[in-house]
Amino acid sequence: MSRLLEVQNLNKVHRRNTLFEATARSVHAVRDVSFDVQRGEVLGIVGESGCGKSTLARAILHLDPPTGGRVFFDGEDVAMFRGRRLLHFRKRAQIVFQDPHSALNPRLTVGRAIEEGMIAQGVPADERARRRAELFDLVGLQANRMNDYPHELSGGQKQRVVIARALAVHPEMLVLDEPVSSLDVSIQAQILNLLVDIKQRLEITYLFISHDLNLVAYLSDRIGVMRRGELLELAPTESLLSAPKDEYTRALFGSSPRYEDKRLLSTPLLGRNE
After folding, report:
1. Whole-angstrom Cα distance, residue 78 to residue 7?
2. Is 7 a member of any domain?
3. Of 105, 123, 13, which is closest to residue 59 (Cα–Cα)?
4. In-domain check, residue 274
5. Is residue 153, in this structure, part of any structural domain at all?
């Protein structure tokens, strides 16, 4: 495998003004984080809420640019992208957010929502229609739901739409930021099965972010553990789970069901259109 993403000493500092302080307070949300992601790999990032995982994801994609460090995508410095080059990067690296309801425009049908990225990329209408039909089938949605609005779909169906929208422009990498945490457990299993299927069929790269160790362990080739903005350790899944080096990692794993005793998808697959 070749390297697709490289993150070097990434930092993100937020400055916050408060009513009771004369000067702004700095919050170091991401602190000197470095790692790489190989093409076709699933790299998992796990850590408790507020540890900086989502901030890291947004900084990598320059949705909220970092305050220090560098991000290279396919060997190119993302900070140098402007105009068409930035638009091309947005096509190659897409993100799926935690809450599918807020990620969708309530005024657009879900079929039109899937076309948004293609419209921005200048894809002709007939090609958009063909691709939309392919995507509905890929994510397990019935074609007769294309003219539905988000409020007419279940949470799992909406997340399928969001995943389809992210895939519409043929990305090379998906950043999955807590993509199932807002869903019921049985629906989580279906969406995780879907992501595994998409990974196998499209040979796509995932950066998978979650606070749930079992989700990360099931899906990932390697796992990185974050705490208070720092990446404490990074190793292949099996070796990290069997012999974590950092004390915090051992405590995090100790509070979760043992990986070898409980695989995530012991929950049966309940069908494609929950």
Report:
1. 10
2. yes
3. 13
4. no
5. yes
Residue 200 CA, chain-centre distance (Å), reads: 17
- The per-residue pLDDT for range 60-94, each reduced to its tens digit, is 999 999 999 999 999 999 999 999 899 899 899 99
Given this model, what pLDDT does residue 105 score?
94
Q: What is the CA radius of gyration of the chain?
A: 19
pTM of the model: 0.88
Task: Identify the domain containing residue 141 by its residue range.
Answer: 3-266
Q: What is the sign, positive or negative, of the torsion defined by CA atoms of 27, 223, 216, 192? A: positive
Amino acid at 46: V
pLDDT over threshold 90, residue 256: no
Token representation of residue 55: 């901030």
Calculate mean pLDDT across residues 215-225: 93
| Residue range 231-240: mean pLDDT, rounded | 94
Q: Which two tokens stand for residue 140?
A: 């397990």
Domains held by the chain: number: 1
Strand partners, 87: none
Sign of CA dihedral 137, 139, 141, 147: negative
DSSP assignment, residue 24? Answer: P
CATH of the domain at 16: 3.40.50.300
Report the mean per-residue pLDDT for the chain: 88
Strands 93-96 and 3-16: unpaired
Q: Is 259 left (phi over 0), alpha (psi -120 to 50) or beta?
A: alpha
Residue 273 counted as domain residue: no
